[in-house]
């Protein structure tokens, strides 16, 4: 996976890793990321040098989708569950280092402590909001459109290939 804040090449050692604007000429513009992906896949299938292609999200938006209402029961239940998993993990690790046959006590102790700490941390976190955020949500960064850019020496060839793709029905 590539880093979105670096250019195509790696910076020289000792230089800061700063965000770099994309380079290239637009060869296609799409309303959905899947369409831009399909276009680049078509270029790759056509032996186009895709290492010189960039997909750029334009008109970025942060979309927060509300997934539900938070209540004390949901908060404490979630805290107990996450604490239980962590406590079980710690208990199992402690159990591996105890004499044979007595591993169950550390596992149960870790599980119990995890539940207690999970409840406490969840309650403190939720109480500190004082009802200002009584909902759960998931955030996602999306773009209004996705432009496919290619380096100038290959832009015309890329546009021609994508024009042929546009004439084909989607598969």
Automatic annotation (TrEMBL):
Domain of life where this protein originates: Bacteria
This protein's record includes keyword Transmembrane helix: yes
Annotated region described as Disordered, given as residue ranges: 1-24
A Pfam family annotated for this UniProt entry: YflT
Keywords, comma-separated and alphabetical: Membrane, Transmembrane, Transmembrane helix
UniProt keyword Protein transport, yes or no: no
Domain General stress protein 17M-like intervals: 27-114
Transmembrane segments: 75-97, 103-127
Entries under InterPro entries matching the protein: GSP17M-like_dom
Compositional bias of kind Pro residues: 13-24
Protein's name according to its UniProt entry: Magnesium transporter
Record organism: Saccharopolyspora terrae
